[in-house]
Structure formats: structure tokens, C-alpha cells
Amino acid sequence: MASAALTPPALVGRSAELAFLDRHFDTDLASGAALMLTGEPGVGKSALLDAAAVRTAAAGFQVLRISGCPFQRGVGFSALNQLLQPLADGIPALPARQAETLQAVRGLSEEQPTELLGIANAVHALLARTAAEDGPVALIVDDVAWVDRSSATVLGTLARSLRVGPIAVLGASRTGDESFLSSIGITEYEVQPLDDVAADELVSERFPAMTARVRRRLVAEARGNPLALLELPVPLNSLQQTERGTLPAALPLTERLKGIFSTRVAALPDATRKLLLLAVLDGSGELHVLQRALGAPDGLAGLSPAERAGLVQVRGGTGRLEFRHPLTRSAVMELSTSEERRWAHRALAAEFPEGSEHRARHLADAAVGPDDQVATLLHEVAYSTLRRGDAVGAISTLLRASELSGSGTAKARRLAEAACLGANITGDLRNVRALLDNAGHADPTGLGSLAAATAAASELLNGEGDVDTAHRLLLGAINTHVWPEDGETVEDIFREALNTLLLVCFYGGRPELWRFFEEVVRRRRPPTSRRLLPLILGTFADPAYGALPFLDRLDHLVSGLHQQTDPVRVFGLALSASYTDRLSGCRSALRRVVDDGRDGGAVALAIQAQFLLANDAYASGQWDELLEVTAEGLGWCETHDYRLAASTGHFQRGLVAAARGDAATAREIADRLVSWGNPRGLGALRVYAAQIRALSALGGADFNAAHRLLRALGTPGEVPHFAPQALWLLLDFTEAAARTDRHEEAAAHVAAIRKSDIPSISPRLAMVTDAAEAMSVPDFIDHDLFEAAIATPGAERWPFDWARICLAYGERLRRAKAGGAARVHLDAALGTFERLGAAPWSARAADELRASGIPVRPLEPAGSELLARHALLTPQERVAAQLAATGLTNKQIAARLFLSPRTVAAHLRSVFRKLNVTSRGGLRDALTGPVK
Asked: What is the CA radius of gyration of the chain?
């Protein structure tokens, strides 16, 4: 295995850090470990990694090294190949599928690499096999933030699974840099600058002739940065180091260090600099690649001056060239001319096969003007990048392809496609108009293309909620779109067009919109075996009539979501699961999409993923989690101008407010949804508002108001097509109708539900249908139906629905003088409502118990005074108080929570009174500190 060829010099002043690293690898050996070293540039992170490599190798670890490269960040799997190269002999021993996957990653197979999770599993299997045969493995990653995105995703997945075997990860990155390790919550250890004693010792050891006065000056200037301590003396001559010459008046740290690196590189022979330039642009460190690119059998002899100067080293075991500090690479680039860089890219391109991603990218970087052939290659690379789940990389590649396009038509097409992917996937809604304007300037006739129409429609839909204009744009573009024979890359744009149309239809909420979508899916199916559109149409668009034939396939696909890395596909499957009560199986995949958004990836999809997770949190009774999830999602919507998507988050918060008795917040959210949605023809928002208002009315036992609101949404006895929200309103409408003596309406509604076989979709729907039918019976208590509903297997997954059924049954039992039986169900309902914080529903259950002659004690105080203090506040008051404590104004809080400043002010007045504080300055202590 790869270990350091030479033992690095003893590190001065790092005994504590080395002891920490020893403990890290020692104590966690059996179950794996992950640690990130952070610190300022030059603080000694790489030196600690080198020391850790030697010490772990001595402890019996097999050491593997990876080094991120800024110039290779756009090249998929460049870092991962550094890991695979020394393990290549072990790949054939893996199961055939995993071996084939890794060979594809290495570029030794004609097949495209599989999903990133599959690659991660194959890498983990290879490392586990290595650990089993040769001992535990230590994976050491330098410059983590510069690891290419595809490798980062794989390595991040690997780091999350360390508990599986004796595989340890140690990374290093500059403080503040975002990376695959910093985003998964692993332990971080910040490497501090050396103290003055250690700094003086280091300089004395390396420059023994330097006098104490000069040494103190350098120690003061370096401020404990080891790199500066070692590099600042370099330009000083012997007279200056011994106080016989005058020191410069100032030694600017950053500029001085950059100058030192440039000077040392500039002093190298031309042949050496040429070789180093190839190494920088290649990024792999493979000597055979550099030798072939030079075209000379003795070309590697040019490395000697750089090695002697301490700028690079060839690591023993791997045979790879490594730069001793990243700034050396930057200096090499700064000192090269544009022509030299183009030469290097051309030389490297020649070493890769036709059609490879590396070849295309090097040719693109070597181009000096339009080159249609290279642009076409890069266009294909963009979509292979997209299918690997890297939408950001795909857009960057498309933009470069547009720059290289010789014709206005090709340039416009690629700009429009970048705009389309940006609007639908990465959250670049604000850049859409500029990209489309540029596309229009390149080719005014191209704005009717499918990509341009999709981008414009997405901008109109997400930003302004203009469903009708968006629908017209998409309708025209899809109807005139001609599917090419070799249209694999266009398939991705077609998919985005239909995904946008899907959201147009959903938010529009009108059956005629869905009819067009249904026709498009039937007539213009993309030629792929991975097609999801018919599944989504059946399970999401029209679940009451279309879901049942697709449920087996949906269950199969959801069970495999843990292997899915394409965020678009994850989103499509989660949509299909949302109204069929299968979102719980999508949680981990949706969280990965959210994590990708946090890392700057597919932000638009991450927003949707947040709100899908919130749907699941509402159904499963995790309402505090819902408030947290939607707060982050709404923040993203505000940042990226996704106003329509934000309506879903506000709706979910409105449901919680209604269920918990925060009538003012529920009412204001519903009013805002209607006032924004009605002028734009957004039928979904009208349904959202009605559901919030009806739930609030039901909690307050205002059954007439609830019936009026829900009756306006449909006709009893009919289950309309393309009305997925009806599956969430079944219990609400039946209870409202039954409690207002409209039993015939309730019975007709239940009969229509059973006729369409909706209960077969999920256990939850079967549970609420049984309960609804029992509620609809006016003359007697249908014990069998009520008890069947309450005993539904897994009913605890839907606690609010279940508690409402217990309450309804208990109410009827109490009125029938069956007090003992009633108490069982009313107690169960009360306990669940109290856990959820559903105050009005708790009050209804408590009132029924009291009416039975059963005393109901108030809730026990929280376990601590701080929790008790929090318990005084409603959820909306608590959120408003927390935001105010951070310094936000009422107006800013109102915008964040979709409330008016007046309502926020009312919430805060209530908070001040309940917490006994008189100003915002006291809120932080009141919310987080001990009670005085």
C-alpha cells in the first residue's frame, strides 16, 4: 500500500496534535473513524497528514492518500482514481458488478459509471476486502475542498458508513471551506498556529545561523504560521540573517509568501516548469501520463530541479507526483503563458481516448475560439455529468460549450439548456432571464425551443405563479418539438419540460390542464426504460383513479431509493409517494437531496425535497420537525425567489398552526394564500387555504364553518379526477357533514370513496375510510368499523388521524352512556393530542371526559424550568421570539413567516408578557438561559 517513502522531519510544537491523532486512530480502530483537520493556510495541516501517514503505517494501517486539485475539480472521479490506482490489483476479486463499476470509473470500461451510491458501495467493498486481507485502512485526504464533486459524493457516502468496518478517514481543509466531509457532521479539529516558543524553536532548527534578534522579528511577523516561518527566511541573504545587513521594513505575510513561491518556480529550468505545468493541469500525479504527454523517454528527468528545491516529491509506493504545497501549483499557473497552457492541454488531451470526458475538457481548455467539434463533445459531457447527479457541473460545462459554439443556433441552444437546468434543478432562477436574453441575441429564432420555453415557463411559474402563460409556452414548445433519432441528451430537457408542466398542472389545479399533460405522456414518451411519467401521472396527478396499477412498481422503486443519486429521479418518486402514503420510505433519499442543496448543488430540488419531508412530518406527527424543515426551505425560497414553491411550506405551517390552535396565524396564512393565488388562477392554493381554515374550524368544533369550506371544494358522492388533495380531506369532510346532520352527504362521500377503491391505496386511507363510514351512520354506533380503524396495523404512523378517530368513537360512546369504554378512547386521544400540542383537540377530548364525570388534570409542568418556559408559548410565538432574538426586525420576521408585521408584533407582545421580559435584549437569555 501507499505510505510515505521517507519519514518526515519531526514536527515542532505539535505533540498535542500528534497525540490527538494517535488516540483518534487507536480508540476507534474497531468501528472506523472520521476526522477533519481545519486551519488557516500554511498552519501545518499537510505536515500533520504526512506524520499521521507514517504513524498509522507503523501502527499496522494500510495508508492510502488522495490530494484534491483545484484544476481537476471539474473532472469527474479524478480524486477517486487516486484511491483506486494502488488498489487496482484487488478490483478483479470483487463481485463482477462491483468490479465492472470500478473499472468504468477508472476509464477502463466502455460502460458509463453507475449511480454514485453504487460506486460508493463498490469502493467500500474494495476497502473492506483490503482491510480484511492486509489490515485496517487509513484514507488520508488533503485539500478536501478541492476534491471533484463526483469523488466528493462517493467519499462523503463512504465516510458516513465508517461504522461498518476498520476503515478510518483523515482529511484536511482550510477553515471555512465547504467540502464533502464538512457537510456530514464529522468531528473537526482546528489546527492552531504555533506558540512563540515553538515558533522560535522551529526557526532555530531550520536556520541555525540566524541571530536571535532576526529570529524574533520573523517569529513576530509570521504569527505562528509554520509555512511563513519556514519561507520568510528564504529571500534573506546571509548578511541579513546574521544582522550584518538591513532587514526589509515590512514583510507582508500573504504577498511575501506568494512572491516566494513564484520566485522559486521561476528559477527552475524551462523544461522543469513545462513538466510541472503538465502535472498541475493533469492533476492525477501519474508519471506515465506526464511522460507520454512530453513525448520524450527521458522527459521525467526534468523533475529533479523541482525535487531538489523541495517543491515536489514522488511518493513512494504510489509513484505519483505531489506538490508539497498548493501555492506551488498556483505559482506554476501564474508564471505560465496562455500559449503554454494551451500546449499542455493539447498534449494531455492526446493521452485520452476519443469520446472521453478528460479529452473533451482538455480540448475545450486548449481552444482559442469557436470549435464546433469540441463544443459537441463538451455538450455530451455536460449531460453525462448531469446523469451522475452533478447539475452544477453540467451547467458550467454547457456554458463553456456555448462559448465554443460556432453557430448562433448551437450557442443559443446550449445557453437555453443551461437556463432550463438552472431554473429547475440548481435554483438559478435569477440568472434565467440573462441566459435567455443571451440566447436570443445569438439566435432570435431559438427562443421557441423546448429548452428556452421550459426555462421561461419555470421562471414565470416559480417566480410569479403565472400558470396560464407557463402552460401556453410549454404547450406550444412540446407540440412542435421534434424528437431526434439520437436524442439521449435532449431527453433530459424533455424530462425537465414535463416536470415543469407537472407543477403547472398541480398548482393550477384545473382538470383541463391535467388532460393535456395526460395526452403528452401518452403521445410523446421519451425512449427510456427508466420512464417515470406514467407512474407520476397515476399516483400523484390522479391517485384516486390511477394509483392502484402502479403501487407494486412504486413500492419496488421506493425500496431501491437508497441507491439512487439522481436528484430529479428521487424527486419524481417522492412525488409519487406523497399521496399514496409512502413518503416514509423516501426520507433518506430526500435528505440526501437536501444535503446536496446545502452544499450548493440542486437547490431547486432541495426546496421541493424539504417540503416533501414536511408532508411526511405532518402525517407522522413530527410537527416541531416540520417547522424546522419548512423554515429552512422558506429561507431558500426567499433567497432564490421561488415564491410559488414557498406557498407549500406556508400551507404546511398553516396546518400545524390550525391543529395547535394558533387561529390568528392559521387565518393569516390562509388569507395570504388566497390573496396571492386567486388572481393567478392557482387552484391548489385555494384548496390549501380551505384545508387550513376547515381544520381550524373542526378543532374549535365549528362544524358548520368547516362544512361550508369543504363543500365548496367538491360535490358529495363524487371523487373528482385530478384532485389529489381530496385524499387528505376525506376525514375532514365526513366529520363536518356528520356533525351538521348531513349524514346523507357523508354516506355518499364514503360510498364514492369505496367505489373508487381508494382504501386499497394505503393502510392510512383504509383506516380513515372505515372511520368516516362509521361517522356517517346516524342511528347507531358501528363498533366494528370504529374498532377496525383504531386497530389498523401501523396506525401509530399517523397519530393525528388516529387520535381524531379515537375522539370520534369516544364521543359517540359517551353519548350512548358507555362511559367506561368511552374513557379508554378519550384518554388515548387526549394523550396523543397533548403530545402533538394540538390544544383545541385536547380541549375537545378533555371536555368529553369531564362530561363523563372524569376529572382531567392539567398538563404536568415540563421537566425543567427552561422547558416549562418554552411550553408557555405557542409554536408560532416561539419561532417569532427565536427570530427576534437573533436581531431580525418585525418586517423581516413577517417576510420569513409569511405573516404581517402587525401579527408578528402581536406575537411578540404575548411573548414578552409570558416570559416576563420587557425588551428584545432579554429574549435570548429568556429562551436559552436559566430562570432567574
From this structure: 32
DSSP tag of 168: E
Q: How far apart are CA 32 and CA 165, in angstroms?
A: 6
Which cell goes with 68?
484534491
Instruction: Assess whether pLDDT exceeds 50 at residue 250.
Output: no
Question: How is residue 271 annotated by DSSP?
Answer: H
d(CA 494, CA 488): 10
Contact 582, 598 (CB under 8 A): no
Which residue has cell 431547486?
604
CB 716 within 8 A of CB 748: yes
Global model pTM greater than 0.85: no
pLDDT of residue 246: 58
- Conformational region of residue 581, where left means phi above 0, alpha means psi within -120 to 50, and beta covers everything else: left
Q: Are 818 and 809 in contact (CB under 8 A)?
A: no
Write down the pLDDT at residue 75: 77
DSSP codes, 173-219: EETT---TTTTTT-EEEEPPPPPHHHHHHHHHHH-TTS-HHHHHHHH
Give the 3-state secondary structure percentages of the chain, helix then strand then coil, rounded to 5: 70, 5, 25
Average pLDDT taken over every residue of the chain: 84
Kind of pairing between the strands at 187-190 and 33-39: parallel
In Å, what is the CA distance from 466 to each residue of 299, 471, 497, 503? 63, 9, 16, 11
Query: For residues 601 and 391, is the Cβ–Cβ distance under 8 A?
Result: yes
Q: Distance between CA atoms of 461 and 471, rounded to whole angstroms?
A: 9
What is the pLDDT confidence band of residue 249, given thresholds at 50, 70 and 90? very low
- Whether the CB-CB separation of 558 and 582 falls below 8 Å is answered with yes
Q: Can you point out the beta strands (E) in 229-295?
A: none
Residue 139's identity, in one-letter code, is: L
**What is the dihedral angle through the alpha carbons of 697, 699, 704, 707, rounded to the nearest 10 degrees?**
80
Instruction: Tell me whether residue 187 is exposed, middle or buried, using C-beta atoms within 10 angstroms of its C-beta: 0 to 12, 13 to 18, 19 or more.
Output: exposed
Separation CA 327–CA 41 (nearest Å): 10
Place of cell 500525479: 285
Q: Tell me the backbone φ, ψ of residue 150, rounded to 5 degrees.
A: -65, -45
Cβ-contact 414, 398 below 8 angstroms:
yes
Pairing assessment for the beta strands 320-323 and 312-315 based on DSSP bridges: antiparallel
pLDDT of res. 919? 72
Cell (9 digits) for 105: 470509473
Q: Is the pLDDT of residue 490 over 70?
A: no
Given a contact cutoff of 8 angstroms between Cβ atoms, the answer to whether 709 and 737 are in contact is no
Strands of 62-67's sheet, edge to edge? 62-67, 137-142, 167-174, 33-39, 187-190
Q: How many CA atoms lie within 13 A of 297 on its CB side?
A: 0
Where do we find the cell 521594513?
249
Grid cell at residue 885 = 432574538
CA distance 541 to 654: 23
d(CA 395, CA 432): 12
Gap between the Cα atoms of 232 and 251, Å rounded: 8
Distance, in Å, from the CA atom of 52 to the CA atom of 439, rounded to the nearest integer, reads: 52
Cα 475–chain centre separation:
31
Per-residue burial over 429-457, b = 16 or more CB atoms within 10 Å of its CB, e = otherwise: bebbeebbebbbebbeebbebbbbbbbbb
Neighbours of 372 (CB within 10 A): 13
